[in-house]
Design brief:
The protein contains 3 helices and 4 strands, in the order αββαββα. The protein has a domain of 78 residues: Transcriptional coactivator/pterin dehydratase (Gyrase A, domain 2, 2-Layer Sandwich). The two termini are 15 Å apart.
C-alpha cells in the first residue's frame, strides 16, 4: 500500500487544480484496483467491493462514511447485497483532485483491515 493513505486532504475550492493526465497515470499506479470513469464529462474514481452478505456491505459503507466525515470529503456509496460501489471525485472542481486518490487509498486500507 502506498503512502497516499497517510496523506491529509487539502481544502478545495472551484479554482483548485484538477489532476493532469500525467498525474493521473502516476497516481493510478498507487491504486491499481480503481477505475477512472467519466460521467457527464466528470472524471471519477470507482471501485466495487465484494462481501458475503448485506450486513458486511453495510458495515463497510458505514466505515467509509466515517472516513469521509473525518476529511469532509464524501463519495457516492451504493450499497447492495454482497457489494458496495464507491465513487470518489471532487464536486467543487467537477473532476479529480489528489484528495480523491488519497481517499481511494484509505478506502482500500479500510477493506484490507477486515
Amino acid at each position: 500500500m502506498s503512502d497516499l493513505k497517510q496523506q491529509k486532504c487539502e481544502a478545495c475550492n472551484a479554482e483548485a487544480p484538477k489532476v493532469s493526465d500525467d498525474e493521473l497515470a502516476e497516481l493510478m499506479r498507487e491504486i491499481p484496483d480503481w477505475t477512472p470513469v467519466s460521467r457527464d464529462g466528470v472524471m471519477q474514481l470507482e471501485r466495487e467491493f465484494k462481501f458475503k452478505n448485506f450486513k458486511q456491505a453495510l458495515a463497510f459503507t458505514n466505515k467509509i462514511g466515517d472516513i469521509a466525515e473525518a476529511e469532509a470529503h464524501h463519495p457516492t456509496l451504493v450499497t447492495e447485497w454482497g457489494k458496495v460501489t464507491v465513487t470518489w471525485w471532487t464536486h467543487s472542481i467537477n473532476g479529480l483532485h489528489k484528495n480523491d486518490f488519497i481517499m481511494a487509498a484509505r478506502t482500500d486500507a479500510a477493506k484490507a483491515e477486515e
